[in-house]
What does this fold into?
Amino acid sequence: MYFFYKAPHLALFANNKMSDKVSISRKPKLINLHEYEEYLQNNLPKPVRDYYHSGANDMITLRENRAAFPRYAIIPRILRDVSTVNIRRKILGNEISCPICIAPTALQKMAHPEGELATARAAARFNTVMALSSLSTTCLEDTINAGKSIPAPDQGFYWFQLYAYKNEEITRDLIQRAETSGYQAIVLTVDTPMLGRREPDLRNYFSLPSHLILANFQKYYQKSLENKKNHDEETVCKTDTNTLTMNTRPTIATHKTTATPGNNSAIANYFTLLIDDGLTWATIDWIKRNTKLKVILKGILRPDDAARAVEHAVDGIWISNHGARQLDTVPATIEMLSSIKKVVRDKCEIYLDGGITRGTDIFKAIALGANAVFLGRPVLWGLAYEGEEGVLDVLNLLKEELVLAMKLAGCVDLKVR
Ligand code: LAC
It folds into this structure.
């Protein structure tokens, strides 16, 4: 029997005695990640799909992130008894089902009404790490609680991606809340002193849809509403905290009134106004002093920066070019992995994101020295397709592809020999 599983009247029906005779219908699983991507491209509103898809400028690095993987060939070994393969991994001391984790992506409720809640539950069911964006549309407390509500033995591990704000109190507050609510690591993004130039967002006057908020800043949003009673819109939107939510009427007003050619993305304006462009290595020491959590630097592309990060005793180096959304024409992440691994060796863990669409891509990243890979856009594709189930399907699909790649390559575990 085929029915839409979210229809409330049928949920009642599913609870009665006939429930074991009816199967809850699901959308068909798609064959590969390209099909999930295509679904998002065909089904979300243009400003949303453009925001998720865009890379910076001419999107050279966006294409390169993907194009670089096939340039590495796998040379298989034969006759290796691949009847059992082991893909479990320990990441920051926690065992996960395989080295496929969830990267932070902002504004997930634009892809699906359950947004980050769905992703957090899928992370637990897949037994992996989810890194939550500072710019989430669900607050960090609700997100981790959703993940923790999934019964054992499923278990997710949650990291918090941090943007450092010009206003240090906001940064400190985010770190504190992440710590109190059970996150295990702070992932500091270090490649975004300003937002990269994403031309489709500029064309679309991209701003957060008005029914959504940047949920981690709700308290500031409320404050802004109180202030709004006493000020006209323009005054309100000029204060720091009031612009923390991109969707408040005042912010949209600012966005429109300040729009000039090349300055008409609300999120780009948000970064210019609020995010600290003065970070240095001293910031890393400051963060380490201000948290008991593990600290990971996301956005490293150079071996010398990786060496410096090791000197500052970080727990993880995340090789990333921010999904090719920041500085165009930087190299594909996979191209930098070997040289970074050479300097880091086993002094801390190494993660990589960018351009992964196949199990063979993951196999190559692990072979070249990554402890795990993180998926950004593919998670959004799954989320757009079918919420929590869609995210889980995307993760499982890549896991199956990884196992297949290993077996065909004559490889039974993920140890680099
Ligand atoms: C982006 C930021 C918000 O890439 O991470 O859009």
Summary: The pocket of lactic acid is lined by residues 106, 135, 267, 322, 325 (CB under 6 Å). The first strand starts at residue 89 and ends at 91. The longest helix spans residues 377-409.
